[in-house]
Amino acid sequence: MSEISGISTDDIENVNGFFVTSGGGSSTATTTPTITVSTTTLGNATITVGNHGSLSLPQYKCHVEAGGAEIIGNDEVAKNVTSNQQNGTLTFSDSSGVTGQRTIKVRAQNFGDFIQSAEASATYSKGSITKRYIRFTGVTSSGAATSSRLGIGNIRFFTGGGQTGTEYPTTNLTSNTSETGIVVSQGRLYSSTYDAYKAGDSSLTTMAWLLGASSAQNWWMIEFESGTYSTPPTISSIQYKAYNQSAGFIRIEGSDTGAFAGEQTDFGVYKCNNNVTHNYG
Q1: Dihedral sign, Cα of residue 58, residue 63, residue 64, residue 68
Q2: pLDDT mean over 145-156
Q3: How far from 128 is each of 81, 116, 133, CA to CA, in Å?
Q4: Taking residues 58-63, what's their average pLDDT?
């Protein structure tokens, strides 16, 4: 059945439990919402939704498709409606290993109505990082450097999306230079207990912890040395666990010189929660 009372079933199917077998509404679908999409290199996305027309209490339905299949479901998208109830923000992290362009699909709906908006869509593609130096910096939600400490454990960098492919470091580190071709460092060393390599030693109880760091010192970094890596590996996804971390966001940057004096590339700001394992990309 394509229409009920002149309403496309695409616009009313499965709204508040309504299905095309159970009856229909009596008005037309609302105007298509506008969506503005901002994504990071490794696939964290923020979607600003507006233009709800007559919707006074908008709810959202959002999912992401790639390769003809859903890769991020509606329940995996965090949703926030603004105080004036007229627009909102949707966020998600794309850690799917599926390659190719993604399509975001969004609808808005008034709570209690058997009608929803027409569908808005937008596309994006995930990227990768090919830099000799990759740095994590503790930042605020706006991306400003902060002294709120980083706490990094079990970090790995992967050549494939969705934490697949070759991973670096390829060994469990026992010092900052224990793996040939890889050097790890941090902006401030509080004590040897929390040295940089503790982020990659695979232990569930140790970490690199930036206690006492200033906003300028609050970073952790991996270097792929040119003697081993004539070209740095291409990194498509990252995994790490935030331990005892008060910085709520990290900025990921890359450099070919290690100076981080303006020559670096910004790969985006990523939300992180304390004592949670995060998958980016």
Answers
A1: negative
A2: 97
A3: 32, 37, 14
A4: 88
Q: Where are the beta strands (DSSP E) in 125-204?
A: 133-139, 151-160, 164-168, 182-186
Q: Are residues 271 and 246 in the same domain?
A: yes
Distance CA 239, CA 124 (A): 22
The β-bridge relationship of strands 58-66 and 102-110 is antiparallel
Residue 17 belongs to domain spanning? 3-124
Mean per-residue pLDDT, 141-149: 95
Tokens of 64: 């992401």
pLDDT, residue 52, reads 62
Model pLDDT for residues 208-253, shown as the tens digit of each residue: 999 999 999 999 999 999 999 999 999 999 999 999 999 999 999 9
Q: What is the number of structural domains in the chain?
A: 2
Regarding whether 276 and 138 lie in a shared domain, the answer is yes
* Pair 91, 139 in one domain: no
**Residue-level pLDDT at 51:** 73
**Placement of tokens 């050097």 in the chain:** 183
Phi, psi at 193, each rounded to 5°: -60, -30
Cβ neighbors of 176 (< 8 A, separation 6 or more) are 183, 184, 185, 195, 196, 197
